[in-house]
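protein under study:
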Amino acid sequence: MMKQAKELQSKMAEMQAEIEQLTRDGTAGAGLVTVTINGKGEMRAVSVDPSLMKPDEKEILEDLIVAAHADAKAKMEEALQEKMKDMTGGLPLPPGMKF
């Protein structure tokens, strides 16, 4: 039993390291704004199409950045769930247990 617990702990540490290296892009405005986040949810890059660089479109740009971040976050959560399924052999995690 202790051996299995140590193996699981080792696998969890490996997976956390892998998660930190994952990145996902989220887009908004038909690709005019792209946000890249890592597995920790930290924003790593923002790309904005030059056509949005107009003073009168400031609010639109701000909204698109927020929407692109939400899209990236949703994609990352989906990727993390898949990784967890692979690690746990398809067993679901208890509710509220997240990584």
Notes: The domain at 20-81 is CATH 3.30.1310.10 (Ybab; Chain: A;). The first helix runs from residue 2 to 21. The longest strand covers residues 23-28. The mean pLDDT is 88.
